[in-house]
Structures are given as structure tokens and as C-alpha cells.
Design brief:
The chain is of the alpha+beta class. It is built from four helices and eight strands.
């Protein structure tokens, strides 16, 4: 069974749901903060025209998710990408959260929800991070991802490769 790349997942702090075209304004209110992107390979994604292209690519990807607070407000976005049934692998990436959610439990819960969903279908989840994006690298290490090398991302940029493998005893659906 192939993975559902746009599930609805709920935790006590936040949830995820498929990203919709009507989410643009609310998500741009989060993304327009330049500090979100200061270590990112695309450092000007806070600019309206750059974010507009990113948002269109997100919708076209078929795996983009809106991240919502417990109250239902959009606080960020993430994405499932590159599902490979043969290799039993999917990527989680393109994640950003409003700065007011940094340093707490939000990213951990987001990754936990997405990993729990992914491991129902695949053996391995990968994360690709820009070499200079130390903040995201530390966040992945904090949730248990292991640095295993490097590989190009979806647009060919050199990236640090992290992975997580399905835990022993985890029940697989697909």
C-alpha cells in the first residue's frame, strides 16, 4: 500500500493537514520573518515573490502539509517527498515553524506525528539539510535522527543526509 503523503494528524500541541491554496496568506504571515531563513540555503524566502514560488511548488508537490496550533491557526509547514516504495523510504523536509514555537516541544511533536505516519509504510525516513543550517541539524539530532552522509536535495543542492529507521516492533500498514 503506498503512503498517504497528505494525512491529517493530531497531537496535543499541534496538528498537520493537507496544505490548501487558501492557506497562502496565513502561511506567509509566518514565513515573512527573515530570521526563519537566516541559515537556510534560500535565505530570501521571506520575500513575497520568493515565497509565492515556494508555495506554488509546495502545492504542486502533492505532499505539502500545513502545521496548525491546537487552536487551529497555521504556525508553519512541512512536507513528505520522494516516496520510494522499492527502497521503503520517504523524505520529510521543507519544515518551518513560527519562531514562537522554537525551542519547545512543537518540532518534536511535529516530527513524532510525521514519523509515526511514515513508519506505517516505510523502513527509513530521510531528512536533507543545508550544510550551513546548524539549527535544523541540531533539531533533527534532538529528535533522534542520525547524520549518515550527504546527498543532493530535490533541486541538486549539496545537503547533509540524516535518517531514522523504523523502530523494532513498529506495526507496518503498507
Amino acid at each position: 500500500m503506498p503512503i498517504d503523503l497528505q494525512p491529517v494528524l493530531l497531537g496535543d500541541l499541534l496538528g498537520v493537514r493537507p496544505l490548501r491554496s487558501t492557506d497562502f496568506d496565513a502561511l506567509y504571515q509566518v514565513a515573512r520573518d527573515p530570521l526563519l531563513w537566516d541559515q537556510h540555503p534560500v535565505r530570501d524566502r521571506y520575500r513575497y515573490e520568493v515565497f509565492t514560488r515556494f508555495f506554488a511548488e509546495s502545492l504542486a508537490s502533492g505532499g505539502a502539509l500545513a502545521v496548525t496550533s491546537a487552536a487551529g491557526d497555521i504556525i508553519g509547514s512541512s512536507r513528505f517527498h520522494g516516496y520510494d516504495q522499492r527502497r521503503s523510504e520517504v523524505e520529510i523536509g521543507w519544515t518551518f515553524l513560527a519562531r514562537s514555537y522554537w525551542g519547545g516541544q512543537a518540532n518534536g511533536q511535529l516530527k513524532s506525528l510525521m514519523l509515526g505516519h511514515a513508519f506505517r509504510f516505510v523502513e527509513r525516513v530521510v531528512f536533507l539539510v543545508g550544510p550551513d543550517n546548524r539549527r535544523s541539524q541540531r533539531a533533527l539530532e534532538k529528535v533522534g535522527a542520525v547524520r549518515v552522509g550527504s546527498r543532493p536535495d530535490a533541486v541538486g543542492h549539496d545537503s547533509v543526509l540524516f535518517e531514522m529507521r523504523r523502530p523494532e516492533g513498529f506495526t507496518r500498514t503498507g
